[in-house]
Amino acid sequence: MLTVIGSINMDLVTLTNINPSMGETVMGESFLTIPGGKGANQAVAAAKLGADVKMIGKVGDDLFGKEYMEYFQRQSINVEKISVEKGEKTGIASITVYQNDNKIIVVPGANHLITPEVIDSYKEDILQSSWLLLQLEIPLAAVERALEIAKSGNVKVILNPAPFHHIPEHWLEKITYLTPNEYEAEQLLNAYSNEQIGNRVREKLVITKGDEGAEFFNEGKIVHIPAMKVEAVDTTGAGDTFNGALAVALSEGNTLEQAVAFAIKAAGLSVMKLGAQSGMPTREEISE
């Protein structure tokens, strides 16, 4: 069982051929509502690849929340631990796509009601997991409590440090792998002045590098896995696809190098379609 604790957002996506300046109004090309949120994205990515996935999170009692719960069930994701919060709004992300890249504004809504006490109520679910996936779109205190519970039961953890926030030193021993992008990795390494601590961080890093692939450190040496050559349509959710696929591959007993190669293929295929979750590939698509 893979358990994902994190954000559940509805993505409000606007496609435009003109990138407006501040104060400028332009005509867009199209508008879509697409399920998103880093936690939900990673859960869907793993489920599409055949994993047994449990999602822990919160939605509001609005139309987006209702739609999301039905959607998760269609994706064969266990929703027993997703609570519907009365009088609250489901989180949203406003996304503008311009020239195959994006700008994103997130309004967390019910996601910010995930507290350490909420995490405690799901202790047994965490302890029964083979891998736990975490991100930083929910309150940091809740992330820390999830790490503590996972450590107590020797549950392996992938933490995707996005949106970027400094990782406290005492978190490091509780994290199996950190999966930043290049910018986030630089910030992480610069934050630790002590060489010994920096080396500990480095050995946990799996760094995504967009169309250059990904890299990790093995006994201080960089191992680089190149990306597939694809024509990108929408890069939204590529990192989340990578994380979900990485967890799936590791849970199946693959080496880190094999798991990273698998995750790169999944992420590469994901950018060829519009939308974070709608572009995520199945196991069959990766095999082809």
TrEMBL record:
Residues annotated for ATP binding in this entry: 181, 208-213, 239-240
EC number in record: 2.7.1.15
SUPFAM superfamilies, per the entry: Ribokinase-like
InterPro entries according to UniProt: Carboh/pur_kinase_PfkB_CS, PfkB_dom, Ribo/fructo_kinase, Ribokinase, Ribokinase-like
Regulation affecting activity: Activated by a monovalent cation that binds near, but not in, the active site. The most likely occupant of the site in vivo is potassium. Ion binding induces a conformational change that may alter substrate affinity.
Pfam families hit by this protein: PfkB
Cofactor list: Mg(2+)
Record localization: Cytoplasm
Catalyzed chemical reaction(s): D-ribose + ATP = D-ribose 5-phosphate + ADP + H(+)
Superkingdom of this protein's organism: Bacteria
Keyword field: ATP-binding, Carbohydrate metabolism, Cytoplasm, Kinase, Magnesium, Metal-binding, Nucleotide-binding, Potassium, Transferase
CDD domains recorded: ribokinase (cd01174)
Metal-binding among keywords: yes
GO cellular component: cytosol
Residues forming the catalytic site: 240 (proton acceptor)
Protein function: Catalyzes the phosphorylation of ribose at O-5 in a reaction requiring ATP and magnesium. The resulting D-ribose-5-phosphate can then be used either for sythesis of nucleotides, histidine, and tryptophan, or as a component of the pentose phosphate pathway.
Matches recorded under PANTHER family: RIBOKINASE, SUGAR KINASE
Name used for this protein in its record: Ribokinase
